[in-house]
Fold:
Amino acid sequence: MSFESHIRVECVRILGKEWVKDDPITLYTYRCDGLTLYTAPPMGVVFPGTVHELASIVKLLHQHKISFIARGAGTGLSGGAIPQDGSVIIEMARFKEVHEVDLINRTITVGPGVINLRITEHVHSEGYHYAPDPSSQKACSIGGNVAENSGGPHTLKYGVTVNHVLGVEMVLPDGELVTLGGKHLGMPGPDMLGLVTGSEGTFGIITKIICRLTPNPENAVTMLGIYNSVRDACESVSSIIRHGIIPAAMEMLDKITIYAVEKALKPGFPLDAEAVLIVELDGLADGLDAEAEVVEKLLKDSGATTVKRARDEVERAKIWRARKEAFGAIGQISPSYYVQDGVIPRSKLPEVLDEIAEIGKKYGLTVANVFHAGDGNLHPLILYDYENPQEIEKAHLIGEEILSSCIRHGGTLSGEHGIGLEKAEWMSELYSGSSLDNMQNVRAFFNPENLLNPGKIFPQPGRCAESKSGTPPKAGAVLDKSKLVAAKSGIAV
Ligand SMILES: Cc1cc2nc3c(=O)[nH]c(=O)nc-3n(C[C@H](O)[C@H](O)[C@H](O)COP(=O)(O)OP(=O)(O)OC[C@H]3O[C@@H](n4cnc5c(N)ncnc54)[C@H](O)[C@@H]3O)c2cc1C
Structure:
């Protein structure tokens, strides 16, 4: 697949030759995002550098009824940036300008291509940071974060992306430029900004974001609880919350993950532990020690064999590096992995983790766990070999059984990675047909012809016939999985 020649000519006229690509290497590179279980090549990739160029490209594609997808850093884990029907990819990486830092209003205005961690680096010496900190923050873009409403370890206390975005500028799928929100608090009328945040790149292409800045805490205490059983670690999570303490973060790693991070990063986690729980408290220096003592006691009372405190910034950074790079560390013990992202009520953690272990055993694959324990947001990592088609199939089945388990225990499909392509067909397990229709009507308000990122979030027509209302979605693109190629089993570029 590549650009039709008249489209290529027009794209080159708008952007210049170097920013329009459809050579085999580019198409191969952009065939998937972080969800490598599915791949499909785009028609081509364009790299606009200004809002005017972006709007011109969008108008061109709209006029020719060619579908398109915005892409940030491609770290998404639900296939949101996979061009499953040969869409054109609009890469937003060149929008990396920091437009303004306004410390009086505690805001920073950035382009969507700015990498999450760069925002904090930009303002840290001024005493501020950008609070949502996905583990991928060294790589993912703020545009992708807004599209996915991303979370991270510290969103337990500080809230997810939607709580830290005050305004956006975006290009609608017909090329019109609109702004939503601003530096001021709230807007009268329905919360359109809230709707756009988390719309997974299906409402518009974001070109500018006003982010809220958070003052750096005066102090932080980071503790590591060590456990002989995952159940005890889960009990500690409940015990802390029940006690009315909201830590800045509460993250759990199981034995398999401990082994992988020790192999890759050597943070000094005990290899004989069944689980470790990272608990971080932050805030005013006064009183923090006393709170840490309470937490330490709660951890021990609920089964921690040892509780260690990071003695300085170096030890604290080591612990956090191990947590945030844990997915990558799994590469030390498995050729590939598939990350699930279910959410359950915190109280159900022990049962669901036991069930996940049983599901893994049933299919003969290892499932590691590293997750946002405080939020009940699980990230089972299903380890498989991408050269082995049977293992690929088993990884899919394990993922599905884990999702079923989460739903059965009163949870839901995604905590932060989004529905994307991966879980679109699961939406009818959660919502009635009329609810899905209503949601798609909202999408149709922004994206009436469904040219922007089709086939994402909602089930394909036909599947929806199973829905309670029996009404098929109004503007659904056909998700043709035959066009998707399981990773490594052949790439159709
Ligand atoms: C190792 C690893 C760890 C991770 N940890 C976390 C975590 O802790 N928390 C978490 O929430 N996620 C996590 N993720 C998932 C991922 O990093 C986030 O979803 C992130 O927000 C995606 O950003 P991106 O720039 O890579 O977006 P992409 O993958 O490029 O795109 C994601 C979606 O956003 C849309 N999009 C991108 N840019 C724009 C734009 N400018 N306008 C409109 N739509 C746009 C795309 O169309 C797509 O639908 C992790 C991923 C990896 C690989």
